[in-house]
Each structure stands twice: as C-alpha cells, then as structure tokens.
Amino acid sequence: MRNELDKMKLQSPNWAHENIRKLVEIFPNCVTETIDVDGITKHAIDFDQLQQELSDHIVNGPQERYQLNWPGKREAMLAANAPIAKTLRPVREESVDFDTTQNLFIEGDNLKSLKLLLESYLGKVKMIYIDPPYNTGNDFIFVDDFAESTADYLERSNQMDKDGNRLVANPERKGRFHSDWLSMMYSRLKLARILLSDDGTIAIHIDENEYPNLEKLLSEIFGEENNLGTIVWDKRNPKGKVAGIAQQHELISIYCKNKECFQENCELIRPKKNAEKILSQAQKLILRNGSINDKVKKEFRDWVKKQNFSGGEKAYCLIDSIGNVFREVSMAAPDKPETRSHRPLIHPLTNKPCPAPEKGWRFPERSMDALLQRNEILFGADETTQPRRKYLLKNNMFENVPSLLYFGGSDSSLLKDLGIQFDNPKPMTVVKKIIQSITQETDIVIDFFAGSATTAHAVMQLNAEDGGNRKFIMIQLPEKCKPSSEASKAGYPTIAEISKERIRRSGAKILEGECHQNWNRDIGFRVLKVDTSNMKDVYYRPDKIEQSDLLSWVDNIKPGRTSEDLLFQVLVDWGVNLSLPIHQEKLGGG
Predict the structure, then answer these.
(1) Residue 148 to residue 171: CA distance in whole angstroms
(2) pTM for the full predicted model
(3) How far, in Å, are 35, 188, 218 from residue 25 at the CA level?
(4) Which of 83, 246, 326, 423 has the smallest number of CB atoms closer than 10 Å to its CB?
(5) DSSP string, 518-567
(6) Which of 528, 515, 505 has the alpha carbon at shortest distance from 456?
(7) Which pLDDT tens digit goes with each residue over 455-496?
(8) By the 8 A CB rule, do 196 and 128 touch?
C-alpha cells in the first residue's frame, strides 16, 4: 500500500507548467530565467519576447532577465515575421533537367527566399548546412532593412544623441558590427528552424569572432537542450602574425530542432575511415591462400600493423575461423557488481568453468547466451584464461562523430580541375562527411549561403558513392564579383553564376566516374529567381481611377510574365513542392 501511495501525485496537475511547455515547443526563444520570491532561479516565459512574436510591429517593454540582447534585435524579429509581396520565377535556360530534377537553385536574397519556401517545405528539411559571413570586422554584403550606419547604431544604443553628442565615453567601435551580424543571422535562423523537420539539424561554420554569440543565438532560437555539440575543425594552418594566439581552427556548431525526436530517429555517426579497406584486405588474403590458416592470420596482422591507421583501427588485426575480422575486448563489468551475472562460462574443449571477472560480466544472462550462440566469445587454450568478446568489424562499421576534425587541405585543385574560380570555398570533403553523418537516402539539404555551391557538390558526390537520392536547395544572392577578381576575369559577373556553373560542371564530372547503381543520377537543378509578384500593383481606390485608366486594368498580369511564371506563383502560394515534375499538354486542339 505504501508503494502505491508513493506513486500517487496527491495534487491536481499544474496546468501553468503544461502551458509553458507547449509555448516552449513553439517559441523556444521565449524561455528565460527569473528569480522567484524565495530567491531561486527558475525557468519562465519572457512575455515581452512573446508579445513581440505575436505582433506585427515593434513592442517595447524590457524587464530584467537573462537574455542575449543587442540594438536591432526587435527589428530583426519583426523582419523574420513580416510578410513579403514576392514570388519565384523559373528560368529554364539556366537550369539543368528543369522538368525532372528534384534540386532547386534560388537566386536572390536569402531572407526573402526562405520566406517563399516556408509553405512548400514547412517541417520537411532534414538538414540545413551554412557557412555564413564570418564578421571579421568589415561590413558584409547582407544589408537588410534593419542594417544601420555607425551613427544610427550609436544613437539607438544610447551612445550618441540626435545632435551627434556621445553619451558614453569611448564606446565599443566594433559593437555595431556585432549587432549587424546578429540581426542578420537572427531573422534567418528563426525561419530556418521552421523549415526543419522535427528530427532535423542545422550545422553552421564559424570562426572565433562570432562563435560565442552564435552559440547564444542558437540556444535562444533552437533551445539550449537541442545543442548536439561543436566540431573543432583543425585546418592545420595557423593564421599569420597576430597579437594573441594564432588560430588554426574553425568551429562547426550543430543543433537539432527536437533532441528527443532526433535521438528516436537518427544517429550522429560516421563510417569508420578504413573499415572497408581492412575487410577487403582480409578477403583478398583468404582468397589468395584458398583457406583460413595461421599463415593468412599472420599476414593479415603484419599488414594491419604497417598501415597508417589509428590505434582503434589497428586493433582489428585478427581473423576467426570463418573469416570474420575482429578485435578482442574485455567482458568484465566496469561497476555495480551486484547487478551483474557471475556465472562461469564453460570452456568448449575442456568442459571446465573459466574464471569470471571479480565484478561480474558486463552483459546480462540473455546477452551472454546470444554471444555464445553467435560464436562471438573468444576462449583461451584452456579454462585458465578468462574469456573475452570478439568485437566483429562488420558489425561496427560506424563510430560516433568526434568533436575534433583534422583536415588541412583545400579545394584549389578540385576547382581548378572544374575550371571554377572562387576564393576560400568550403572543402567538399569536410561538407560531405558532415552531411553523411546526419542525413539519410532521400533527405532534403538546404544551404542559404551557397557561395560556390560546395554543399550541392557534396550532396551529389555522396549520392553517387552510397546510392542515396538526397535533394539540395541552394540559395545565393547575385552578389557582384569584384572587377579585379579571377572570377570576374573568367566571365562570372556574380557569385550566383559561379554557383550554378560549379553545379553543372561537378555534376557532369561525377557522372564520368563510378556511380552507385541505386543513385537516380540527378545532377540537375531548377533555377528560380526572387522577383516581384506577377500581379500588377494597385495603388488607387476605385473612386480615384479615371475612365482613361480602365483599359490598363483589363489584364492584371504584369507585362512580360509567362504562364510558367504564374504556375510557380500558384505553387508558392499553395505551398506545393517546387521540384515536382512539370508536363505540358495541349487541350482541345489548342
């Protein structure tokens, strides 16, 4: 009876807590910390922030609380929530396999582009992979409506009045750049979260300048509990002469939308680097010798020891009697001996009990029986040796993604081979590894800072290798290339043109190599450009229109807009998948 009483709640549910939990799911950025009447810190709803989320204008009303704040944050929130009168116009002549491809390339401002994708891809994107501007102290290209001059920043942050008089001595000169960068990222990340599936993730490259702020920003928008960790990418190339420590690494922050859902459906793992090579060598030696004997086993051990493998990989240097590559591991329990089995295992040759570990076996009885049945327990020459487990490589081809990534190469030769000019692109190999660790065969990957379209290249290359049919959506502003740049000299007026050409050339190059039989060989992309609505703008009330104006309002479609333009506006408005196949038919002999 006492046990049953212990389980009873003895009070009605706290619906306030339940309501807060539901609000947190929708608006994780509205969770803050506050002090209750007893002086205890607890979670609470930031009602000022929630009010701003539910308003179409800037709301004032700050109160003391734990939060990341900067001049322009409310405007950035408003920019993310505000509607736009834009559409996406298809451009067949710049596309590849326009009618059948499932990939998209959107040319235009990424904030507007993300808004135009919301209805069609709400909750459907598995991974967002971006490499935003790193904010090294210079102004960046993304100047939104809330970006400001130094004078505007000083005035709005109370460092300068309207007459230009400074209100605070020696203000932080780079604060403006932090504020601009945070505002630019805030509105885009809020929209990005909406696009993600419940088990979706976002990976963001960043350097030391904004990493602390980015982590706070992501924790606010996605929720601190959804932080999957940070990868430190050792580039093996420290920066030149600096006043402080010469940084030779960048960081990749990874968050998910809902950690419980992510853990239920996904594993953040990667293939062991040399696993396939090790298994292939074992089979090669067995076939060459015609059997599994001591000579084969010795040759295999010697070969593994000579390889430039990690210590963990070199441990897989053994072959059993049926050709399985394995390593030996202890089966002793690490702790809590009272909960473990101490039963002795019987040696298969002497039929005598082998010694059990002092703390018992690591595995429960049922698991031990399964290991015995599968011949995955390794016995010594007689019963005096404690049995160990055979850890089969074929069952452990993947490993957890570590926090350290070592890659010191660049894509200079890769881009040169493609005939593409672009400064400091993300290495395709690094991008491919991370996408491989997170996505599955048919997932959608978005990059809204596409740059040279490394992400698109990585998706196609990965599909060609593992037979997946992942789809990409690239978004790139038609930022003009500097006239003095090699890209401009090569005939590329904008970065968007470089992006599209790289996808064309890399796709063709991939098809020339060995491709997995299950891959659908989709190297195409449908080009869509952000533009004004196809409908004419109406500025006048009916009573203000003259009779002479009536003929101009007979057709409400803007001049030069095509039937396909109208089709895509309907697809955007109705929230239909923008990569659906398109077929044209003539009806009624028309």
Answers:
(1) 16
(2) 0.78
(3) 22, 19, 15
(4) 83
(5) T------BEEEEEEE-SBPP--S-GGG--GGGGGGGS--BPTT--HHHHH
(6) 505
(7) 999 999 999 999 999 999 999 999 888 888 888 888 899 999
(8) yes
